[in-house]
């Protein structure tokens, strides 16, 4: 009888053991799935680049007018010699119009003209300045570093677009002869105003 009682205890243990094993196995499977999910999420976060995606990055395309260069307003009295400047950035091409003072009494900064970037030079009627039409190419990466190819020169400038997308700041001017930051405002045609 003792052997039968021991055998019964063993049978009862065998009957309840599979139920415990099922719960324990289910717990292990759920834990393993959670760990695999966390590992996959960690790998995705490690591989994906930080910051905005290239399609989310703000665009610098448009027509921009120079408003400040090295903290100074452009104009006839500007030490840079730049009276005004408009820049069009479209599809990797940059085209610019720079009006430069030629008054010999006031020193002016040297400009990177003439070279193959110049399309045309027009002298003012009163011969106090000239208008230079120039062109080149640009490339804007995800970090808003702009690579400019103007004439024989290749430059790297940092662009920062304001939240309203109506202003853009460069750490130096696009024609790259005046050191210091340049501030541009979006140009609006007179037809749209």
How many β-strands, per DSSP? 9
Give the rounded overall mean pLDDT.
77
Structural class, by secondary structure, is alpha+beta
Element-level helix/strand string: HEEEEEEEEE
What is the number of domains? 2
Molecular shape: rod-shaped
List the helices and strands and how they pair.
Layout: H1 2-47, E1 62-69, E2 82-90, E3 93-101, E4 118-123, E5 129-140, E6 145-150, E7 153-161, E8 167-170, E9 182-186
Antiparallel strand pairs: 1-2, 1-9, 2-3, 3-5, 4-5, 5-6, 6-7, 7-8, 8-9
What does this structure look like?
- The protein is rod-shaped, with a radius of gyration of 34 Å.
- It has 193 residues and is α+β, with helices and mostly antiparallel strands.
- The chain folds into 2 domains: 1-48; 62-186, no CATH class.
- The protein is built from 1 helix and 9 strands.
- A hairpin with a 4-residue loop joins strand 5 and strand 6 (145-150).
- The chain has an 8-stranded antiparallel barrel.
